[in-house]
Amino acid sequence: MAESGTRVVVAMSGGVDSSVAAALLVEQGYEVIGIMLRLWSEDNGQAGQACSPHNRCCTPDQMQDARRVADLLGIPFYVLDTRELFRQQVVQYFIDIHASGETPNPCIACNRHIRFTHLLDQALALDARYLATGHYARLRQEEDGAIGLYRGVDAGKDQSYVLSILNQHQLRHVLFPIGEFTKTDVRAMAARFGLPVATKHDSQDLCFLADGDYRRFLRQNMPQPASPGPIATLDGTILGQHTGLADYTIGQRKGLRISHPEPLYVVDKDSAHNMLIVGTLNELGRQELTAREINWISGVTPLAPFHAEAKIRYKALPVPAHVAPLSDTGASVRFSSPLRDITPGQGVVFYDGDRCIGGGIIERPHANSD
Fold first, then answer.
1. For the chain, which terminal residue's Cβ has fewer other Cβ atoms within 10 angstroms, N or C?
2. Is residue 207 part of a domain?
3. Is 207 designated active site?
4. E-strand stretches of the chain
5. Is 212 part of any domain?
6. Does 64 share its domain with 188?
7. Which residue out of 57, 58, 110, 356 is catalytically annotated?
8. In a domain, 204, yes or no
């Protein structure tokens, strides 16, 4: 049971996961406050068609659902306007990183700057001890006193990848109430609590796009308009012309509009020369990368290289890797075999079994070496 009088702010979205997280905390005796974030979204005029002007994470219907759940649970509910901060820290980051030739994960940026910095600060200012979310992940106190971050029990829903940015201060003030359960369990609990969102579908896609078309969004918002350029092989042979580097991602095969005896894939983007580099499936694979902005969950940079499992995308399978810290915030990673789709701007996250060791941003893959 919770300590008497322990106050917790729950980040509510109107979905089943955060609603069950709030219900569990109420059941456990916490003093719960629900807060929903109002996030920035482009309007219909920018998208050029009739579609929702609201961020998909906080539509009026979702706000109404979150408020209904809060009323049912008997907890206070507030909406925090973070539109401008979200625009600066997540949307502009998305634009800027694409402009540099990389492909970012905006959910990582949102967790880093919005949920677990700004919202956590707001929770602590309300004299709450914890901020709770509906993420599928688990926390555990280690033998040395540090708080460890672990995969959620439901392997298909585990979200430790996008939580790898959390530091020890944040981990000591967060709760993940549903991390010990599967999605099926969570829906069953929602029905048991009588929550009106028990069968609600999960949200998908980039939440701030009016129509889900990120290529159209980037063409309209990048500082320099996307311009066509050459498509070339690794040896410099020009095969055609691309429509703008932001329209492509590493590993892409469809939409290249070039003719070649073998299937070709995007293997690199040379933003300095506005050139899209393509190659065969064998040329696509890379075995090494360097990463920046590494966050070590324990708060301590490893003193020596180590073996771990690593994920290079949220839905990627973990693979064996040799990780060598280059500095407090950098690392070199060599995989046991070449991987497709190593994409600059995406996260690379390290695991020891179910324990998340840390992660960072992929800076660049390296040519294979013997």
1. C
2. no
3. yes
4. 7-11, 31-38, 77-81, 130-132, 137-141, 147-151, 174-175, 229-233, 238-242, 265-270, 275-279, 286-296, 306-311, 319-327, 330-339, 347-352, 355-366
5. no
6. yes
7. 110
8. no
* Same domain flag for 129 and 264: no
Clarify whether residues 277 and 291 are in a common domain.
no
Q: Are 138 and 153 in contact (CB under 8 A)?
A: yes
Same domain (yes/no): 269, 302:
no
Which range marks the domain in which residue 256 is found?
226-282
What pLDDT score does 205 carry? 66
The SS3 of residue 12 is coil
Report the sign of the C-alpha dihedral through residues 189, 166, 339, 90, in that order.
positive
217: how many CB neighbours lie within 10 A of its CB? 23
Q: Which residues in 152-222 belong to E strands, given as ranges?
A: 174-175
Domain boundary among 255, 282, 309: 282
Asked whether residue 236 is domain-assigned, the answer is: yes
Considering the candidates 57, 58, 207, 356, report the single residue annotated as catalytic: 207
Q: For 44-71, how does the pLDDT look when each residue is reduced to its tens digit (9 = 90+)?
A: 545 545 455 667 677 888 899 999 999 9
* Dihedral sign (CA 284, 288, 294, 295): positive
| 131-161 CB burial, b ≥16 within 10 A, e <16 | bbbbbbbbbeeeeeebbbbbbbbbeebbbbb
User: Are 290 and 263 members of one domain?
Assistant: no
57 is catalytic: no
pLDDT, tens digit (0-9, with 9 covering 90-100), for 70-124: 999 999 999 999 999 999 999 999 999 988 889 999 999 999 999 999 999 999 9
Return left, alpha or beta for 274; rule: phi > 0 is left, psi -120 to 50 is alpha, else beta: left
